[in-house]
Fold this protein.
Amino acid sequence: MVLVLALGDLHNPHRAPDLPAKFKSMLVPGKIQHIICTGNLCNKEVHDYLKSLCPDLHITRGEYDEDARYPETKTLTIGQFKLGLCHGHQVVPWGDLDSLAMLQRQLDVDILVTGHTHQFKAYKHEGGVVINPGSATGAYSSITYDVNPSFVLMDIDGLRVVVYVYELIDGEVKVDKIDFKKTATTHA
Amino acid sequence: MAEERRRFQNLRSVRWRVDLGILPASPEASVEELRRAAADSRRRYVSLRRRLLVDPHLPKEEDRSSNLVVDNPLSQNPDSSWGRFFRGAELEKTVDQDLSRLYPEDGSYFQTPACQAMLRRILLMWCLQHPECGYRQGMHELLAPLVYVLQVDIDKLSEVRKLHEDCFNDDFDGVPFPDTDMVFSYKPRKDSKWGAGGDADNGSVRASKVNTLDELDLDTKDIILLSDAYGAEGELGIVLSERFMEHDAYSMFDGLMDGGNGVVRMAEFFSASKVGSSSSLPPVIEASSSLFHLLSIVEPSLHNHFIELDVEPQYFALRWLRVLFGREFCLNDLLVVWDEVFAYSNDMLLSNDEEYSFRILCSYRGAFIAAMAVSMLLHLRSSLLATEINTSCLQRLLNFPNNVDVQKLIEKARSLQSIAIDANTSSPSFLLKKDNYEYDRVHSNLATSTPPRTPLHPLSESYWEEQWRNLHKDGTGPKEIEKGNSFSRSLKKSLSQRLGLSRTESDPSPVKAVRLKSDTKNPVRRCLLNTLSDEVIRSREVAGKIQQDDFPIVSTHKEPLLSSEGPSQLKAAYEDLTVPAEPADVSETQTAEACVVEACSSGENSPVFYAARAGDEHENNHDSHSERSSITSDSCAGDNDRDEIPQDEPSNCNCEDKTVSESASSDKNSEPVGPSERTAVSNERKPFISKLQWLLKLGRPSGEGNTDKGTCETSSDKHDVVAPIPSPSDVSSDNSRSSINLAPGDKKVVGTLKNIGQNMLENIQVIESAFQQDRGQPSPMENFSNNILGGKGQVTAMAALTELRKISNLLREM
């Protein structure tokens, strides 16, 4: 029963001042065990804020991040799942599933989390899951201005992961849930 | 209470379940009923558990999408199942903190993971079911012994099972149907006769064993019947079942915490709210004060000691009550104690409109708990009394010794239990205020039912009234004696103080009637004189022992009765004393008293008057009254004079110089009379004086016949009063005596007068003492609150003066 928060692309302070208030009210410390962040927080304040939510924080480097020490990609194991993290601007074409699948195979992970497109996506692909949590602040992207703030909460429980997607649509938080089950015998 | 053999004597878990109301309590309840009750309680638990312990992961078949906004893990919505999950998780964390410290010694049953898990679940469930209470530290300690006894009984069951395996087998109807083919289908049994061979006697194989239930002893039979898998309610009804241990433990815990519609609800002890108590205090504070109240009745010295050290009962009683003494005794002793506690019923004893002081004492069980606490305090009594500061006292209390004889404590508690129950109803509104403590002491010791007064003028009013009331309870009965004793004790104390003092100290008689109707004076007088002499005698034996006493007020009054105070006051006192008609008697009485006293004591106790009189006597002059009076007052005023007076007194005391004394007294009387607003007839007093003196010398009781008569007679004109004075006094009387004819019957009159006089005397002494206080003379008594008297000295003095005035008025009217 591990709760993992996945978010990214906040672009604070350049493109967005802060997380939406409704998101902030939901994110209280103590409930979440891990945070994985795709990148482009941009400044240190966001980093500290996320650290206050949960001490176990994993970040990969986005192209606008001010802290240059973040790695390009990261892998970690939570429960029975292997998670991979990357910002996604390195994978061209941006947001292309096949290319991301290549990265997933390369990292050898069950769940790949990338960002950069500022669009929420979740694919089941070849025995694994590719998740894009979108932009937590709703910052505009290179591709589009019309961005809804969104982030993802994963509930990893044994061989099953439940993905809750939180989107702020028209000022209201909408929640969706996706179930993934890992097959006991893993991938190719 | 458990004289008759209680059912399931050896099966604690069953017995406790009966006591806590889970299983039917009537002695005729059949095994079937027991089983059904057990099954019901278990079902309740299971339904509760299903409801409360919700796993948010369980896929709900319906409404996959509907309430995701509510039911997501981050939802702040209190209804969300995730919210409940998180709350439960927090509760669990708190519970775990306590459980990890439960009986942590090695090999402890409670530290095994299975037991810990069970305890955790039970506590969680109960707290979720009672969100208003939440989880408080200590609940786990209440639960642990309950689980323990269940486990013990299950172990017992398995032993019985081993011993009497046959009774537990699954054969239908208990009749073995022999298998057709011995070779292939014999059931290997330990007890089967292997060597039985080709006998077709299968039927007899088991017949020879002890396997009819009736042959077993009652306990084992009980165990077996209760555990029959095919009895009522099947497996769910097996009363001693390992499988349902958690269910049973939960029911017992719930029964204990909720009190089963009774009075004592342990859950209340954990709450800080004021619900459920008769006063405005949290229940546990009220219960703590109840046991202090009981202690004050039973052992006032210890109670006073606590109050002095500022030890409030809840400092230690909180732990005792919340865990029902779980921390004070080792587990086995605790089980014995809890046997007793649960054996008493928890039903409310009082009807709805009856007043009570403490809620906990309204049931036998609660009263026993309080009594147990008090008996534990009494066990530690000597060491507690030896402690000087409150921290050491508390240390002693919080580290209850391990090697106690629990049975003795329990027996003592049983004896105190009835006192507790009575105390609850006899004196309502005894609660709370610290001021009331003194009242509690005084009043409860007097066993009167007077309600405590507001401490506005506590001493002035209650002291005197109390004295008066005490006096009027005289006659038969231990009360009088007891009061006399207590008075004597207090006097003893005061006297012992004065032993070291060179001054003559006035020693008031122990009891004083305040609102005097003269007709009440004689018994007063008798009592006074009795006690006075008693205590005087006893004072010799006192070695300065100070007692925390029943009558602190009394003693405080007494102690500072050192001599010499404001002369003006004294004069006033004299004035009051020398009220017309009777004053002579009064002084006579006093003289007589003085004589008596002197005769008894070594002259250390002498009321002011005696001193004064002695001074007068010393003067021995019949000259101007005023002159004498001035001398008198001077002597009174001066300590030095005082000192020499006592020596003089003995010489005078024998009333040899009756003339002198009487003249002296008369002089004395006259002196204050002059300035006094009341006119006094000095000549009339003389005969009285002498007469009274003589009478007193002869022995008190004579004069103390019926007050009424005496009063009536005295109520007549002074002359009349003078006239009927008994003749015996003529013996010693002189000149003045001639004018008086005391009739024998008037001894009563004299007695009355004596009483009056004595009262006046005492009042004066009080005034003196008040002034003594005013002067700030160090009082030898340290125990009692000198502060009591300090501020109230004036009050007392004024009261005493008013009394004197009243007395004199009364006498005047006569």
